[in-house]
Design brief:
4 copies of one chain form a homotetramer. By secondary structure, chain A is α/β, with parallel strands linked by helices. Chain A folds into 2 domains: 5-166, Rossmann fold (3-Layer(aba) Sandwich); 173-293, N-(1-d-carboxylethyl)-l-norvaline Dehydrogenase, domain 2 (Orthogonal Bundle), CATH 1.10.1040.10. The first copy, chain A, contains 14 helices and 9 strands. The first copy, chain A, has helices at residues 16-27, 43-48, 56-59, 73-79, 82-88, 102-114, 128-132, 147-157, 168-198, 203-212, 218-229, 239-256, 261-275, 286-293, and strands spanning 5-12, 30-35, 51-52, 65-68, 93-96, 118-121, 124-125, 136-140, 158-163. In chain A, the strands form 2 sheets. Chain A has a 6-stranded parallel sheet with strand order 3-2-1-4-5-6, with helices on both faces. Chain A has a 3-stranded mixed sheet with strand order 7-8-9. The first copy, chain A, is globular. The mean pLDDT of chain A is 96. Chains A and B meet through helix 9, helix 10, helix 11, helix 12 and helix 13 of A and helix 9, helix 10, helix 11, helix 12 and helix 13 of B. Chains A, B, C, D: GO terms for molecular function: NAD binding; NADP binding; oxidoreductase activity. Chains A, B, C, D: Residues 8-161 form the 6-phosphogluconate dehydrogenase NADP-binding domain. Chains A, B, C, D: Keywords: NAD, Oxidoreductase.
């Protein structure tokens, strides 16, 4: 039987998000060669028909498409090195979907350009279940001329794509702004519901009212439900990853000289949670710290 | 022609919100006697058929219903004094819709009880246009037995009523929690969009993405639009009133021993804006202060 | 044998500070009639020769001098009521040494004036051992004409007196400013020494260097020693009292529209400590909270 | 005439501090070869007898001593590169007196070791006038065996040396802790004195009281005098440099997972001042920002 999409795509990085996205692509009839530092993570994809590469550079093909979903800046800089990029070479495209710092993205994009590879930043909003279901929101920024070639992939991965122009860093600034808004909403609900509870008011009732009226949107509904239910495991997105993103926000604020007192407050909140051994729960776990600070048990 | 609702209702407090609510009630075929410190404010209502009382106590009738929408705790405590309450007397009901501190509400409710008057706390969410259109969200708490009698009024004023039990203070805690969430969202957007702008990213595009997906709800859409348009006048809700509410939040946090770092941050933000003469713009004007602090002009 | 100071002085309020000050005055050959809500606290003073009054008003004499050292604004307002003041009457002087809010002081002073009593604000700096040894620092503000009459008392109680003019509230603003500086220094050392310790650097060495050079002054030396030794009991000044003072600072900041982000940070720190049951240790115990937040054990 | 100290010392970095230190050393009869990116800065030293090197590597001698006083981590990493270190070589000692991040120091020390060069961290406390007068406080950490050889230099530069062991990073952590305490004291005084002033109390009187009693130490006296006099130029230490140090503090806090809310608050204060074009005044200028935020003019 013929594949709808004949070309093989390299998919690099199989964390919770990457795994779901890769599975979704295979279901969408794309042929994938995957790479992950820990190869065992690829097993479910192999069962779906994916090939596995022993090295990241082996996954890519000259002039082909590579997608990456990596944990941090360091991983992106290490894997997309000169060796990989010279193999990917002219005509190659890197669809970089990780949450990275704008400064790193600018540096990476220049390195890609030097090898004739197009660097497209396309960070995503959504948790692992949305990744698996192709319901992500995508922030695209990079060379406009390669977008048609990527369109079939984007359509399978997301429920919508927004374009932020040709400068890849712009998409990552947008992603950081979004994650900052999410963390801020978690902080605000954590404080508000602790206040209600200590005044003897049912926090769930308060939450129902607000999240069905003024704040009737996914972030308040989904995260708020977890907060009032005190359900912080299994994590959809860990505090440790949240802490990393808050550092990226704070670094971007420094670079641009933007005082962000709420980002600073969140940075300290996350640091306390890491220091006290709570890095592996979901980032809505901010509410657990707020409850403890309020003497609620 | 017969009125649908034969009894006259006292309506006390004709600020931006009160004026809209009173007009809405008259349209809903209720007969009102209104009171406001500055009588001239009542003129449009008189044109609609309302009576005007020279004193608050003159507006109420023994065993009747009084609605109040006042600026602060001090006004509520001053107007609903023993003289007014003894006139309202047994069988009387006070539907208190102002944003007041839970501590004041508890004190007021006791004073009402001593006169045989039912105190119902029913603070509202919504701006003046929602008040005028009967599209408020209502937080009801107080004696359950008087609710049927109030139902026709509530139906005309709001698009929905939530019940928070018999303790009136619970409704006011809920209202403060809600206003705190709103102010937090304004702060978060103000910081995020300044970050985007200083990185050369179009803040409006970032806002459109986020407010149509993860944050697709009235607060982010309406307030966010004002923020990216830098449209802070005329005010729907002034910074001065926001500062007052944040003080009530902070006082409630103290009383209950709940550290609320985000509320503290907002408290200082509002204080700076009052100190620098910006108290009369809309509270989305936080964004103007954030822009100035970021060196954006 | 003749007393050096023939007139009997009323001394009201026998907390840790008041007890030391009263003992010091008796040693300085003053005759005291003391009052405390819990009479048993007066026993050591009775052994020194003091009389005990059953009611505060009984302690004062027409035209005499009353000294007070009370826990909070509420106690001062309750005890110095019209009954006591009408007994103290014209020619009477109240040397009010408690830490009170400027707003309360202004209200109290007016009440005194109505009875012909001079209100002198004279809050103090120093811990109980300094009170007992007559080594307090005194902030005087009030009618200048009564100061000569108070001079012998002031000389026995303090090692120095500063005059802040005729408006009593000025002395209390100064006292709050001072306590705020102290709490700020405790916070700063707590954070700095936790940083050093987590980097494997001996916090005591860091403290010795800094407190013997740039910060060679009593607050850094005494409080810093307690911090590095983690010695928070017995308290010289409890966190609960510190929390009260921080509230007074924050209230004074609101009234005057002065954003004080560091005071807000301290307010939240204190609230967390109260909420988690640490209100009765010394206020240097902020360092214990900082250590816990840093994962130090 | 014979020099007391026959060996020539390399002195690298002639900012405000470095210039004063170098002049002091020449007066102390040390022979210097100096290097600065902008050679013209060396002129007053040449007049005192110093030699000037065109490149940093030309200033050092095999097995000799190099002293550096540089603006930031980047300068230290760039100048003390493999070329310079291979020339300095075995038996060489680098007395590194700049304020650097602990992480950079650890990396630099390893690079020195690889070339057989001893890396001694010795950051200093004191402003340019103290540098010129040999009145600095020195924080020494590094190989103990080279200290005797450095002793004559240390004695001329400082009024005291504290030893923080063999790990060079420890001295830099101590320096950061100290600068953080200084910035915290400036912040605290700025807020306290604005509070006093807006309550109509003379801030200078408050400052005199506190800085002559509880806070009778150089930092409160010197910086406090500048604050109450609103004398922020010429700068002894610019806000821009303070901002850099606060970033180092915040980075060290992240690395060690220590939430430092006061450091975060200062970080945002500094960012606002940079963003609004106030980076070149003295860092006591925090008080100017506090006054503006308080509506004081």
């Amino acid at each position: 039987m013929e594949r709808t999409h004949p070309q093989t795509i390299a998919f690099i990085g199989l964390g919770q998000m990457g795994l779901g996205m890769a599975a979704r692509l295979i279901e969408g009839d794309f042929s994938l060669t995957v790479y992950n530092r820990t190869t065992a993570r690829a097993e479910p994809l192999v069962a779906q028909g994916a090939h596995v590469a022993a090295q990241a550079a082996d996954a890519v093909e000259p002039g082909g498409i590579a997608i990456s979903m990596l944990a941090d800046d360091a991983a992106a800089e290490a894997l997309f090195d000169d060796a990989l990029l010279s193999r990917l070479g002219p005509g190659g495209v890197h669809l970089s979907m990780s949450t990275l710092s704008p400064a790193t993205v600018t540096r990476l994009a220049a390195r890609h350009t030097a090898h004739g590879v197009a660097y497209v930043a396309c960070p995503v909003f959504g948790r692992p279940d949305a990744a698996r279901a192709g319901k992500l929101w995508l922030c695209y920024a990079g060379p406009a001329d390669v977008r048609p070639r990527l369109e079939p992939l984007l359509n399978v991965l997301g429920q919508g794509v927004r374009d932020f122009g040709e400068d890849p860093a712009a998409a990552n600034v947008t992603k950081l702004a979004g994650n900052f808004l999410i963390a801020s909403a978690i902080e605000a609900m954590s404080e508000a519901y602790a206040l209600a509870e200590k005044h003897g008011v049912d926090a769930e009732q308060v939450h129902q009212l607000l999240s069905q009226t003024l704040f009737a949107c996914p972030i308040y509904q989904n995260y708020g439900n977890a907060i009032v239910a005190q359900r912080f495991t299994p994590p959809g997105f860990t505090l440790r990853l949240g802490a990393k993103d808050m550092r990226l926000v704070q670094d971007a604020a420094r670079t641009a000289e933007v005082p962000m007192p709420l980002a600073s407050l969140l940075g300290d909140r996350f640091l306390r949670m890491l220091a006290t051994g709570q890095g592996d729960i979901d980032w809505t776990g901010i509410a657990a710290d707020q409850r403890a600070s309020s003497g609620l048990t």
